Amino acid sequence: QSALTQPASVSGSPGQSITISCTGTSSDIGNYNYVSWYQQHPGKAPKLMIYEVTNRPSGVSIRFSGSKSGNTASLTISGLQAEDEADYYCSSYTTTSTGVFGTGTKVTVL
Amino acid sequence: QVQLVESGGGVVQPGGSLRLSCAASGFTFSNYGMHWVRQAPGKGLEWVAFIHFDGSNKYYADSVKGRFTISRDNSKNTLYLQMNSLRAGDTAVYYCAKDRSAYSWVISANDYWGQGTLVTVSS
After folding, report:
1. Among B52, B47, B43, residue whose Cα is nearest residue B64
2. pLDDT, tens digit (0-9, with 9 covering 90-100), for B37-78
3. CB under 8 Å to B105, separation ≥6 — which residues?
4. Could you tell me if A64 lies within 8 Å of chain B, comparing CB atoms?
5. CA distance readout (Å), B97 to A20, A67, A83, B3
6. What value does the CA radius of gyration of chain A take, rounded to a whole number of Å?
7. In whole angstroms, what is the distance from residue A43 CA to residue A22 CA?
8. Chain A residue with Cα closest to B49
9. Do A98 and B47 touch (CB under 8 A)?
10. Can you give the pLDDT at residue A11?
11. What integer pLDDT is reported at residue B122 of this predicted model?
């Protein structure tokens, strides 16, 4: 149950697009489409942004999109806004029927 | 609206026990799998445990297996986490979270989260 690997930080200017990667193995991301992404602002509970690789829950901005290739999933934020500054975590189902989160990425809006 | 309210956190000595509760409302609790997720101070999220909608199957992170027990009472719309043999490394905010897929045997995603309850293991 090793954590999925994410870059520690990603930054961009307002209006730009950024992409956060999430690398796992054939025992998690590579084997299932149960990959999700969460946004967490300081002192707050996480918020679901993407589920099952590409799906956005109701109310989540279309600026957020997800994808997957092999053992790596990605979250893209388009038209970066100040309110997007937060920590982001990926998560996946695993072949042992457990869950695993990524190491987390701090997004900074310059 | 969906609400998840955790309780039971506090300060406990190493080796001690604590039971967390999560009161659920706003959805049909018995139809959904439920999770516990924790976050140590200044650290990332760590998945802890998952229980199927009917309580028939339970899964744990290796870090807590054999020490923690997840359970649920569907008649009371409540999720529990019994934590025994607590260690300093268990210090964290513990969140309960709802799985988004009804009647699912797999972990889909956590669509609703509680506000968390802080557990501090210290002498």
Report:
1. B47
2. 999 999 999 999 999 999 999 999 999 999 999 999 999 999
3. B52, B57
4. no
5. 24, 24, 24, 10
6. 13
7. 23
8. A98
9. yes
10. 97
11. 96
Predicted confidence at residue B104, as pLDDT, reads: 86
Q: How far is CA B64 from each of CA A11, A48, A72, A91, A109, rounded to the nearest angstrom?
A: 35, 25, 27, 19, 37
| Tokens standing for residue B41 | 């101070």
C-beta separation of B47 from A100 below 8 A: yes
Low pLDDT (below 50) residues in chain A: none
Taking a C-beta distance cutoff of 8 angstroms, is the pair A69, A53 a contact?
Answer: no
Nearest CA in chain B to A36: B109
Closest CA to A64 of A81, A43, A46, A41: A81
Residue B46: its chain A contacts at CB < 8 A? 3, 101
Q: Chain B: residue nearest A56 by CA?
A: B111
The model's pLDDT over B13-45, given as tens digits with 9 standing for 90+, comes to 999 999 999 999 999 999 999 999 999 999 999
